[in-house]
């Protein structure tokens, strides 16, 4: 993978940002981030290999990471905060990385949220990704919300996204909801405690949803499924 900064400069860059944004006297030092950054970069590389967007590859077809490409940086910071958490690292640092992502990119994706190995966030300003179950080949645009809500038994439930799903701008999926494979959620749609069967385009707001057959393979624009 080609990096716009060397790994050493990248970890220094992130540390400098963390210490400027959170001047609490507990400065993050480079050694505290280096191991988790290695893991985050590996995860980013694996994810980006499957993404078709030209900005994720160089002219030779190699995965390319640019710290000034905001969609790439938002994904790396998520991988970093989540990797620190999964590897039982310093939770204060995981929290700072999560909050840095929130501050820079206007996205709220907590370090405990387990996004799939292959996903794409497209200029995700105002997006909130809460707890749920996620599978590969997920695209989320700006202003989207995924999170918990109470079901008919007054129990807090979270959505399940079974893969190859697109959430277009300002769409919402909450509670005991499930998106089956190849579901496309249109702009401003709200799904609450509702299952969506395979190969559907969803419009409207619960309980008055409109479902149409999804006959096109929109995700082939975003991902390479042959790897």
Model description:
38% of the residues are buried. With 227 residues, the protein is of the alpha/beta class. The chain contains four helices and 19 strands. It has a six-stranded mixed β-sheet.
Quick gist of this model?
With 227 residues, the protein is α/β, with parallel strands linked by helices. The protein has four helices and 19 strands. It is globular, with a radius of gyration of 18 Å.
Helical segment count: 4
SS-based structural class? Answer: alpha/beta
Number of strands: 19
Q: In sequence order, what are the helices and strands, one letter per element? A: EHHEHHEEEEEEEEEEEEEEEEE
Give the mean pLDDT. Answer: 95
- How far the N terminus sits from the C terminus, by CA atoms, comes to 16 Å
Strand content: 15-25%
| Proportion of helical residues | 25-40%
Radius of gyration: 18 Å
Described by strand count, sense and barrel closure, the largest sheet is: 6 strands, mixed
Strand order of the largest sheet: 4-7-12-15-18-19
Q: Rough shape?
A: globular
**Contiguous uncertain segments of 5+ residues:** none
């Amino acid at each position: 993978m080609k990096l716009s900064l060397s790994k050493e400069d990248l970890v220094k860059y992130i540390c400098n940002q963390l210490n400027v944004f959170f001047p609490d006297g507990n400065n993050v030092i480079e050694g505290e981030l280096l191991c988790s950054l290695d893991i985050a970069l590996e995860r980013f590389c694996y994810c980006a290999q499957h993404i078709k967007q030209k900005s994720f590859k160089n002219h030779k077809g190699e995965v390319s990471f640019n710290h000034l490409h905001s969609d790439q940086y938002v994904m790396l910071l998520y991988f970093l905060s989540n990797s620190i958490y999964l590897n039982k690292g310093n939770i204060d640092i995981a929290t700072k990385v999560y909050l840095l992502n929130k501050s820079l990119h206007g996205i709220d994706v907590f370090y405990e949220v387990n996004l799939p190995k292959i996903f794409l966030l497209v200029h995700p300003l105002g997006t909130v990704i809460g707890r749920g179950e996620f599978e590969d080949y997920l695209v989320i645009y700006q202003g989207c919300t995924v999170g918990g809500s109470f079901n008919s038994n007054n129990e807090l439930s979270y959505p399940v996204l079974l893969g190859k799903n697109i959430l277009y701008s300002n769409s919402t999926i909450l509670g005991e909801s499930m998106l089956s494979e190849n579901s496309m959620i249109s702009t401003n749609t709200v799904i609450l405690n509702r299952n969506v069967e395979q190969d559907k385009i969803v419009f409207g707001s619960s309980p008055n949803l409109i479902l149409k057959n999804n006959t096109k393979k929109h995700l082939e624009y975003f991902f390479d499924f042959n790897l």
